[in-house]
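Box 3.1 — From sequence to structure: Glucans biosynthesis glucosyltransferase H
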Amino acid sequence: MVERSVPHDRAAEYLERLAFEAESPQARRELMAGELDAEGLAALHEGLGQQSAPEEDPAAVSVGPRLALGYPSPPLAPSPPLATDAGGITRLATTPPLARTPLAPEPWARGALVRWSRRLWRGMTGAANNAAPARHGRMSRWRRVGRLRRLVLLVLTVGQSLVAAEYMRTVLPYQGTQPLEIAILALFVLLFSWVSAGFWTALMGFFQLLRGRDRHVINAREVADDAPLDPGARTALVVPICNEDVPRVFAGVRATLESLRDTGQEAAFDLFILSDTNDPDVAIAETHAWLALCRELGAFERVFYRRRQRRVKRKSGNLDDFCRRWGRNYRYMLVLDADSVMSGSCLTRLVRLMEANPEAGIIQTAPKASGRHNLYARMQQFATRVYGPLFTAGLHFWQLGESHYWGHNAIIRMEPFMRHCLLAPLPGKGSLSGEILSHDFVEAALMRRAGWGVWIAYNLAGSYEEMPPNLLDELNRDRRWCHGNLMNFRLFLARGIHPVHRAVFLTGVMSYLSAPLWCLFLILSTALLAVHTLGTPQYFPEPGMMFPVWPQWNPGLAVGLFTATATLLFLPKVLSVILISWQGAREFGGAGKVWLSMVVESLFSMLMAPVRMLFHTRFVLAALLGRGIQWRSPSRDNSDTTWGDAVRNHGVQTLIGAAWAAGVYYLEPTFLWWLAPIVGALMVSIPVSVFSSRVSLGLRSQRARLFRIPEETRPPRVLRRMVRHLKRMTRRPAPPTFTQTVVDPVANALGCALATSRHGRSALLQRRREERVAEAVSSDPRRLPPAERLRLLDDPVLLSMLHFRVWAEPAAHPAWRELGLPRVPSLKVPGRGREASGEPGLPRAPSLTVPGPAREASG
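Predicted structure (token representation):
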């Protein structure tokens, strides 16, 4: 039980702090002139709440009045969502009323017998894909055209690879007859086929962009901006986040919302910020940023926030949770990443595209990278902006309505997604089993399996994202993607997957498996050199031969093969610059600067390729050997790589490059010229990684008009807004920490109102709460585990009880009050709402009253 007789000085100190946080001078005078503190702390809370307080939780009744003192005019939020729960505690609902839909993913079949039995059952019950759209008219034509195009791609790739293999055979000393040479030849064919497929994709993309039209693809230019939206075409913008940079996330969200408001179609969209954050301080910052956004835009009825307490399946589980709770309220779902920004015109056009193409299940935009200032990121932005359109257009030319989905900046039709695209864990044990990491490719495959199209609107403007700021951050992201793609390859033979999406799984895994294959090819080539140099030539490799076989190298053919391979790799870049120069290169810094930037970026890519090769090889081996990964959110700021980080991450590579170069020089000095681009890049990986991460060098290149992109030359309005909001948010006072949320009167009241674990009363629950609060109040708050702090934040009763006892109990750990009471009133949420700007709609509340009954809402 709580001791209700608290020393008068502690109650007076509490009242002073509350008055210090009160916004109204009149309210401060009334508090200090009154006698609320005369009978102790418990009586003070009863006086504030104007009702008797429960003995175990006296601070609960004062939550609403404390909020009213801190946010008098306009109030913290309108009523609803600000109301009281069944227990009488003030509550601020952050989500709309529940509209639950029971959903469950279909388990993955383990073998052919299971698949055959399920197919037989569906045939007997008539439950086979009855949600697929009709397959006639335009859909049939594009599918036939797509099959024909992919057949042409297969012929071109295989034919070109066979010709290259024949040339490679003649380069080898024994013309590919020895076991070592056979292995080298096999690896060469695999790697060359990979390069060849990319070349033909980019080449066809060049012709597509040059031509400017394809009657078989979805064309965003055919949809007018002023076409009215169907009132039933409700769309949810969902932003899954986890321990992200809060100002960057909410600056992008606000810029997107303001751009959407400019279109006049704001009423057709709701925005959901879906958090999986497990850092208590970041979680508090998210709620404060959400409140500030809603107050400043008057958007409580349009912008919602939810933080899951049971975090399963990462991002895909977050989307599943949204679909179960509110999915049936919407016809479409538009997924954004933490670094995504989209213009209102782009959002409305995506909805209109969906309405105009009722057979489409997913329409993916081609986001443009922008916003970074590091030299490395600016080169990557330039590469994706200049070369990326060729590959995206070429990819869509071959795939048509069986394309990729990249997990963000895409619109999804809710009904088939909820019915067919929820992901079951992969069966089995080990690191390649369990929750699917790279969910996007699998969701696209399941959508296509159900009969719906997956398209890329590659010519739709207004979709933006950010690149990793440096090489190490990019590699940290690549490790997750590598592991996810290796897991996805287990679904290569899954039932009903379309051949194109089987190829997508294959290309996904080859994006990373090509690294160990290339590494093995180089190792075997070095071994062949050692055998040829140190061993005795075999003039009669087979018994009974009458004539000797003279081993010979053909350097002329080797040079020709190397030149042909380099042409396949670099010609798409040249074609990209030619296309830009022909269409107008002014926004890229001018034609000369574009060509110079392309040359410098290509040289830099050559330096990075061997570094990525070794890292990706390590990632593949770690995944195959059963090593799990630690899922961390990528960096969202322009961070430099330190020399210490570079040495720790690239030191072994430097030693490998030096030892490899020394060994090759010992065997055959002339062969070192061939290997110099590989070993040389490894030997200089440390300084390259450090200097390429520098923001100062990136800004110098920007002033020199190198690696310039249109988003830098003429930034779109939505990006300018995002930068402006980000600067403003970073200048704001910091949101309260966990300790301040426990101790400070107004910050604690806001935390109690936002807490989502609202339970009924029971003796067992109350006893457990008493134990937790007693343990927490006597502990140093800095030593409380993050999971326990989150549990305290999520339960309004726990948070209120802990608040009272930190103030009331003399035995409370002194660090609570030392860390929890700042000297300046910096803990309140900014924002004035519509009323302050002269807009109607937000009622005023008396300064010490609690809002009325709550509507039904969920946490």
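Summary of the box: The longest helix spans residues 499-534.
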